[in-house]
Predict the structure.
Amino acid sequence: MKPRKAVVVLLDSLNRQLLGCYGGTEFATPNLDRFAKRAVKFTNHQTGSLPCMPARHDILVGAMDFLWRPWGSIELWERPITYYLRREEVVTQLFTDHPHLFEVGGENYHTDFFAWDYTRGHESDPWKTREDPSWVGTPALPAEKRYKQRDDKIGYDLSRSYFREELDFPGPKTMQASADWLAANGDHLDSFLMFVDEFDPHEPFDTPEPWANRYDPGWDKDLMIWPPYVIDGVKKGTLTEREGRHIRANYGSKLSMIDHWFGKILDQMDDDNRWSDTLFVLCTDHGHFLGEKDIWGKPRVPQYETMGHTPLMIAAPGVEACEIDALSTNVDIHATLADLFSVETEYITHGKSLLPLIYKEKTDVRGWAIGGIYGQWVQIHDGKNKYARAPVGEGFPLSMWSNRWSTMPVMAYPGLRLPNPDKRAYLDFMPGSAIPVIRQPFQEGDLLPFWSLNPPIGDNHLYITDQDPGENENRVGEPLEKEMMELLRTALTDVEAPQEQFDRLGIS
């Protein structure tokens, strides 16, 4: 019998290769490793829509949106898993410190939760307007500036001056609140979904003692907690090799700190014997480049292994720990939750339930996984081979389908603008929906949504990832490319992608 309780913990920007349970040795992750000892560990899990909010759309809504639109909120024709669970009287609780959920372009992902709890102060969250005047709190550490406000202060600097101890930092506070909710409610609810959307180890890579400089004790300059978003960062002189090691070490400190607080949730699961009646999912939206291929942050590059090959672990009552090499992707988390709680969606979704894999009823559930960023590469993975197909020509035709028109850039980026619908816009329809939607076509010279800028014309990538995990040998031009192109055509057809995607990729 399937459980009627579930916990989902999403750790943002979680690098699979740095976790001990996935072979990492650079940083300590004892509690993630502890969880892995009782979980089904997926070893071939791939991202879908990128970056942050598109990935959450995959997980909560179950439909990849990057083929139709960029970063955005939930559309009128869509329903998140929480909508269906509320109809079934399943209590849904969100804990998060993720600021993008409350900015333009992500502002309605929380609304269908029965209850939600938001911890303020992470990244660019406009929480405070001046530093703590009492100075009882910890002053912001000298650090590289990013989002400039008045007096050369940035939003995070202002917030940080109110953090008096480790438990005041957004990540620890969010995880402790989650554990406390389990203790207070776990035995009193017949059915629930607790969703923990934890922004750590996302930047800023700022930690208090004893975590600060844990992996770089010799650093004696201002802390570098804001990684650059750049390709060939060292080669171009954006940062030195030494600065790169420092930034990477600070990511490691953030990772180890949030691992510690993740352990509080595990402790509560242990104390309540919650493992006997609760499905537990540990996932992420994507990885984060920390110098691999001299790439830093999340610039627009193909979904190399660092970014696109992500951890996924699921513990289920009565299921022994094991590894599963079957292909999976983020929309499958939505399908798994729908299967767990026996709900059916009312519109087209793209996921496959992973429960048949977990309970050993099947050995695989999908033959391919696609992903990408709106207006950039469209990528397909067959479990062994990865093919990133770039647009041809000038990257057009390209349209945006949206009735909410609330996409990134967000208010924290005042120098960026969102193109508004113009006289070329017309009403169209999404697959499986009878609700008319605004379709805005773009052409060369138009103001484009942020993530679609500078499309990579003709820059195709093909790697045999099981033989070449470092993705050093691009096999474009070999016979395998034709096979992967045909598989991409099949996948786009299966998800009912718009014809313009076939045209812009040159596979019509």
About this structure: The two ends are 46 Å apart (CA to CA). Residues 384 and 465 are 6 Å apart (CA to CA).
